[in-house]
Design brief:
15% of the residues lie in helices and 49% in strands. The strands form two sheets. Strands 7-8-9-10-11-12-13-14 form an eight-stranded antiparallel β-barrel.
């Protein structure tokens, strides 16, 4: 019987390990590939608008740059431009590069990076012909009117802190919905588009008799045509949370009194008495209820 050479076995093992290691390294280097590169000039508007930004495959409502490419009359959306320091109130002319990548090992798979190459000009002026937002046509922004009732021994303290709180549904000034009312964003300033919360909207029909009596402190106007429970689902960094409100859809007669001249509104109610009691245990809180009134424009 021949004895196997242990030195030869060791060398074979090392050679195999080296080949596998090199192969992995080559695959790693080839994992991220540049698929396209181009340079061009842009005009950047003097203010940012509401649009979509995409992170890890998720679509988020955010302030974005409004830009025009050479020869275009239309403002388009750019969410990020690397190395670009933006100052509101100035219209820019810049040169950027676009580098497109493909990486099968990445969750994003394919993406494009926009990077500043040069600021060609910076002029203090208001950009002309800006749209209200840079959202697709199937999204609409709707102003919200807040009405509320606070019954408390120390009402002034509670009211002041609520108005300066970060409670999104209470300080929201504008809602954005898709036309199916399955996506939403809450904004705190009209035309400034600071996003308080965004996510998906769950709607379910409920019985009007289930609504708390406290809602009667803010009487509705118009004829109720639908009653629902709306849950605003918000994805945070660590978890998903939900804000539930009761929704009345109402029809109001127009100024002429004709049915064809009528308007529709959604009255979103929420009783937050227990939350406020917990936050202000010494304020003698009895009732805190509010309604957000949204006029439907479509």
């Amino acid at each position: 019987m021949k004895t196997k050479n242990p030195f030869g076995i060791l060398m074979l093992f090392l050679f195999t390990f080296t080949v596998i290691g090199c192969d992995k390294e080559e695959n790693s280097e080839e994992g991220k590939k540049v698929t396209d590169y181009q340079e061009y000039e842009l005009t950047v508007a003097s203010k940012q608008l509401l649009g979509f930004a995409y992170f890890d495959g998720k679509k988020l409502f955010r302030k974005v740059y409004a830009v025009k490419k050479d020869g275009s009359q239309n403002w388009e959306s750019f969410s990020t431009i690397q190395n670009f320091t933006y100052e509101k109130g100035y219209e820019y002319r810049i040169k950027i590069s676009d580098t497109s990548y493909l990486d099968y090992d990445s969750n994003a798979l394919a993406w494009t990076e926009h990077k500043l190459l040069e600021v060609l000009s910076k002029e203090k002026r208001d950009s002309e012909n800006l749209p209200e937002n840079l959202l697709p046509d199937n999204y609409v922004s709707l102003n919200a009117e807040l009405r509320y009732v606070i019954e408390a021994d120390n009402k002034d303290e509670v009211e002041k802190k609520l108005m300066n709180s970060n409670y999104p549904t209470f300080i929201c000034k504008q809602f954005v919905f898709n036309r199916e009312f399955t996506e939403f964003a809450m904004l705190n300033e009209n035309n400034e588009f600071l996003v308080l919360a965004d996510g998906s909207l769950k709607r379910e029909t409920i019985n009007e008799e289930d609504f708390p009596e406290s809602y009667q402190l803010i009487p509705m106007e118009g004829r109720v045509t639908a009653t629902e429970r709306w849950t605003f689902l918000i994805d945070l960094i660590t978890h998903r949370t939900g804000i539930t409100m009761n929704a009345f859809t109402v029809t109001l007669p127009g100024s002429s009194g004709n049915s064809g001249d009528s308007t529709s509104q959604v009255w979103l109610y929420q009783d937050i008495t227990e939350q406020v009691k917990a936050s202000f245990p010494n304020a003698g809180v009895k009732t805190v209820v509010f309604a957000q009134i949204i006029e439907l424009l479509f």
